[in-house]
Amino acid sequence: MFDNCEKRRDLAGNLNMSNSALKLWRIFLCSIVLWGLSGGPFSGGHCAVAEAPQKGLVMILDMDMGILPGTGDYLRSAISEGRRIGAGLIVVELDTPGGLLQTAQDMVKAIFDSDIPIVFYVSPSGASATSAGVFITMAAHVAAMAPGTSIGAAHPVMGNGSNIQSDLRTKAENITVAMVKAISEERNRNAAWAEKAVKESASLTEREALKKRVIDFVARDIDELLRKIKGFKVKVGGKEVILGDFSGASRLRYRISFKQKVVNTISDPNVVQLLWLGATTGISIELYHPGAILPGVVGVICLILALAAYQIIPINLGGVLLLVVGSLLLGAELFVPSGVLGLGGIVAIVLGSIYLVDIAEMPGMTVNMVYVVTLALVFASVLAFIVYSVVKAHKRKVATGIEGLIGQKGRAVSNIAEKGKIFVNGEYWNATVKSGVISKGSSVEVKEVLDGMVLVVEEAKD
Q1: Is 57 exposed, middle or buried (CB count within 10 Å of its CB: 0-12, 13-18, 19+)?
Q2: What is the signed CA dihedral for 300, 302, 303, 305, rounded to 10 degrees?
Q3: What distance in Å separates the CA atoms of residue 322 and residue 314, rounded to the nearest whole number?
Q4: Which is the most buried residue in 88, 143, 187, 346, by most CB within 10 A?
């Protein structure tokens, strides 16, 4: 009977593990289905002179954000909507620290292909068009800045803010220089300064930018800007167009969608780093404590979002591997507490965070080192607590389970020689003695637990 009881316990443990794995698998499948239902993260002749509609609708975009895939989709959707409603002009209020080079290239292409004149206006005061922002500003049909703004510093840097070294630096500079020179030549802007902005991180104030032909106008606000562009000649769709008077035109604020905000959020290098850590850590905890559910749910969701981000921004595979290895080492620390595995995991996570994003393709976007150090300190604190708790638990006397029976006192319910039974800790157990005989009703003390759940007892001394 007691052997059967033990088998049932083993079977229950195995079923618990199986049910936990099944729950984790269901969570994974449901997450993928929900992600799929959401739609994923994205959804020539002679130039003639014409005049744009003077009283067409003016669309205004607020682009106070990084140049990320969601931002590119924001601009493309605005152009499409402007075409549908018959807008005569699109004004983009820009304030950006830079972003993804590929997205900047896509946005430049969208601007060049647009049949609606697009004005990029760096505003309000204190705003800047930095890094990738330089490219899209210079690509605009009309480039303008508000007083107290700046443009420039398009030199790519590493994730920790330092300069890129050797061949990687040459590659990054060549890509960005070629791009900005082509834009400058197409829009008849200062290509020499644009190259200097990439190679030397040169920056200009609004007045300097106007003087050097980097922009076309300086205006205090949109009202003044719309008055100033009247009569300005631009090339739209291969034709030269003279802009009309839009100062009295109706205006429509076109907002970024929630979906585009989400795409931008998971495109942030700091968020991507956190997603990878959440994925590996959550799944590791679920495997360590089957049935916890919440860590598994969080881990699987983070994994899906991290994989989605991998398709959106240029991720350095080496950085990802370092993050994964670091998280696995921290997970191994839970099973084999030593401190060494955990320390190695923290170092791997810090290095992986620094080299997570391919900065050659994403100039201006860096991983915040304060964030990285803070995260490392948090992990180190958690690790120290776990190691301390495990060491303390090992030193403490076992009080539960079969081993917890050792030292417990009970009563013999039969005579005990080679075989017998006792009642201890509220249960009946098979028992034996190493020598002699213990009479029924005697007080006994458990000394050892043998295979087959047989307790070795001695007569208790009062």
Answers
A1: middle
A2: 120
A3: 16
A4: 143
Q: Where in the chain is the domain with CATH 2.40.50.140?
A: 403-459
Q: Give the three-class secondary structure for 272.
A: helix
Contact yes or no for 432/418 (Cβ under 8 A): yes
Task: Report phi then psi at 446, rounded to 5.
Answer: -75, 130
Q: For residue 214, give every residue at least 6 positions away whose Cβ sits within 8 Å of its Cβ, in sequence order, or none.
A: 138, 143, 151, 189, 190, 193, 194, 204
pLDDT tens for 400-411 read: 556 667 888 899
For 205, phi then psi, to 5°, come to -80, 175
pTM for the model? 0.62
Task: Give DSSP secondary structure letters for 107-119.
Answer: HHHHHHH-SS-EE
Distances from the Cα of 270 to the Cαs of 297, 318, 353, in angstroms?
Answer: 21, 16, 8
Q: In this predicted structure, what is the pLDDT of residue 158?
A: 45
Name the helix (H) or strand (E) containing 173: helix 166-187
Q: In this predicted structure, what is the pLDDT of residue 162?
A: 46
Could you report the per-residue pLDDT of 122-171, keeping only the tens digit for each? 999 999 999 889 999 999 999 999 999 999 876 554 444 444 445 555 66
Q: Which residue has the tokens 């106008």?
A: 217
Task: Report the top-level CATH class of 403-459.
Answer: mainly beta
In this predicted structure, the answer to whether residue 326 has a pLDDT above a threshold of 90 is: no
Cα(293)–Cα(282) distance, integer angstroms: 10
Q: From residue 410, how far is each of 186, 298, 422 by CA, in Å?
A: 94, 47, 7
Instruction: Provide the mean pLDDT of the chain.
Output: 77
Give me the CATH code for the 49-260 domain, please. Answer: 3.90.226.10
- Positions annotated as catalytic residues are 131, 171
Q: What is d(CA 215, CA 197) in angstroms, rounded to the nearest whole number?
A: 14
